[in-house]
Design a protein that fits this description.
The chain is rod-shaped and about 155 Å long. The protein has eight helices and no strands. Helices cover 87% and strands 0% of the residues. The protein has 269 residues and is mostly helical.
């Protein structure tokens, strides 16, 4: 701190003010940078929450609903005796099947495999149902088809749990980042305020101190007092330092003149 104070004190007044302006500008830019990085970090976590994990959980719920409807329509197909009603069930299930395939994602690979295994029994179930062999079709529905469906549901539940964990982690991380960033911004703001205040005080003192000494010395000269030269203690390489050195020199010269004059007056007396 003493070295900084000495370095600033030796600067010219214009340079002192420039140092203060530059330091405030740099600290302000740093504060803005911290705030910007903080915003980007929070935004990244929020994006994971709103664009990745939350939609994934919603999609899983939709997927479970659609597959449940698909299975219900298959059971309806078994109990229907009207060919048109059966055709309607098959058409609706084809539509559900196409929606499920369109929404498929790489993350759902295991669940997709289980669903494809379940679908492999659909054609046989429909064929038996159309041939009025509902008993055999029902046996498949509650047998191998049911096992495949439960395997699919199990995979969905596993994905749901995994995605929920990721969502909770993202929320926790977002909350932690928010708290850390809040603290960092507060600490940075306080540090900037302290540094700016310290530098401002050093610069202010380096200006007000010599001005006060010069003012006191001039007031002393007005009174004809030349013995108060010791009050000029400010030393620096700036304009005030040069002024005080010249003022001390002038006061010494005047003091010498007065002593010579006093001696001459005594001689004359």
């Amino acid at each position: 701190m003493s070295k900084l104070k000495k370095w600033i004190g030796n600067l010219k007044v214009a340079a002192k003010l420039k140092v203060y302006r530059t330091s405030v500008l740099v600290m302000t830019a740093f504060f803005v940078l911290v705030a910007l990085v903080s915003t980007l970090v929070i935004r990244s976590n929020i994006r994971h929450i709103t664009e990745v994990w939350s939609p994934s959980l919603e999609y899983l719920q939709e997927l479970e609903t659609m597959t449940a409807k698909y299975r219900i329509k298959q059971y309806q197909h078994l109990v229907e005796s009207d060919a048109a009603a059966m055709a309607t069930c098959e058409k609706e299930n084809d539509n559900i099947e196409s929606q499920i395939k369109q929404q498929g994602k790489a993350d759902y690979e295991k669940a997709t495999s289980a669903w494809e295994e379940y679908l492999s029994t659909s054609d046989e179930v429909y064929k038996l149902s159309r041939d009025n062999k509902q008993a055999e079709a029902a046996k498949i529905m509650i047998g191998s088809a049911y096992e495949s469906y439960m395997s699919f549901v199990k995979q969905l539940n596993t994905l749901h749990d995994d995605f929920q964990v990721e969502l909770d982690n993202a929320k926790t991380l977002a909350n932690i980042c928010t708290i850390i960033i809040f603290i960092v911004i507060i600490v940075t703001g306080i540090a900037i305020a302290v540094v700016a205040t310290v530098i401002g005080k050093i610069i202010t003192d380096s200006i007000t101190e010599p001005v006060q000494q010069i003012d006191a010395a001039v007031a002393s000269l007005r009174k004809g007092e030349l013995s108060n030269i010791e009050m000029l203690t400010y030393e620096s390489d700036d304009e005030f330092g040069d002024t005080i050195r010249m003022l001390k020199e002038a006061m010494n010269i005047l003091s010498d003149y007065l002593r010579e004059i006093s001696q001459e007056v005594k001689l004359i007396a």
